[in-house]
Amino acid sequence: MVALALPPRLRRRRFPLAAWVAMIPMVLTVAFAYLGTMLWTARVSLSNSRTFPSGDFAGMTQYVRLFHNDRWLLSLQNIVIYGACFIVACMVIGLLLAIFIDQRVVAEGALRTVFLYPYAMSFVATGLVWQWILNPQLGIQEVLHKFGFVHAHFDWIVEQDYVIYTLVIATVWQASGLVMALLLAGLRGIDDEIWKAARVDGIPRWRVYASIVVPMLGPSISTAFVLLFVMVVKLYDAVVAMTQGGPGTASEVPAKFIMDYLFGRANIGLASAASIVLLTTVLAILAPFFYARSRAALRKDV
Q1: Nearest CA to 181 among 229, 116, 232, 119?
Q2: Half-sphere exposure of 102 toward its Cβ, with a 13 Å CA cutoff?
Q3: Whole domain around residue 71: which residue ranges?
Q4: How many domains are contained in the chain?
Q5: pLDDT per residue over 127-184, tens digit each?
Q6: Closest CA to 281 of 254, 250, 245
Q7: Residue 139: enclosing H or E segment and its boundaries?
Q8: Within a domain: residue 152?
Q9: DSSP H helices in 120-162
Q10: For residues 266 and 251, what is the distance between their CA atoms, to the nearest angstrom?
Q11: What is the C-alpha separation between 180 and 101, in angstroms, rounded?
């Protein structure tokens, strides 16, 4: 009876032996496949390894070389621009689509499928499709010329200053449906009494969404943010399929830089240093985020 009076976070949770045994494969995977490879990568980043790992110790030499590499600095600049535009656009479009479908529109099931279908495609397929669409000789620009708009220009994919935004367009088209699905699930969990009270008080529907409903979607929004952030860090396939990092190195991103130096230039020391920098950046951004969520969850349990 005493245990029942304790807060949920203080109650002792007992797991049967079968549960612990079932966790062994995942624990081993995390220990060796994830932590082991991260430690090995960190060790290689502190060496002068080229084609094969070497046992020498070079200290922070690779990191100094990395941050004196113009291509790496450009990739960081590109990923920041891409990430900000991609996450904001996906959140806004996904929220608008979720609100639209939440109005119990006709053919709701079909619309959900249409909006979510692009996410089922690979980034390679998405990149190739959008490469054709944005090609100045085949795509939107050529169509506009055929309709008589001979001075219209939409050649961003071959313009160094705008090519990164073509990656945003393609990947937002693919990922915004995922955000829509997550936020729609959150919207369907909103108590109907809120809407009844709002109608009684005469509060405009948009005001209810802005002031009440959207703040209540905090868990769904945070989940969508984490998934989108992971997509930003992993951006590689779409770049290779659409631009190959070009024109020149204008659409270079960290993942492509790492892969090129790891396999193309046979410099695994520099590639490992870039990987550790990227991992550290991700942890520095996500760790406080997850800490704040865990603290909020503990406060609710008390």
Answers
A1: 116
A2: 23
A3: 55-301
A4: 1
A5: 889 999 998 888 888 888 888 888 888 888 989 999 999 999 999 999 999 999 999 9
A6: 254
A7: none
A8: yes
A9: 123-134, 140-146
A10: 22
A11: 9
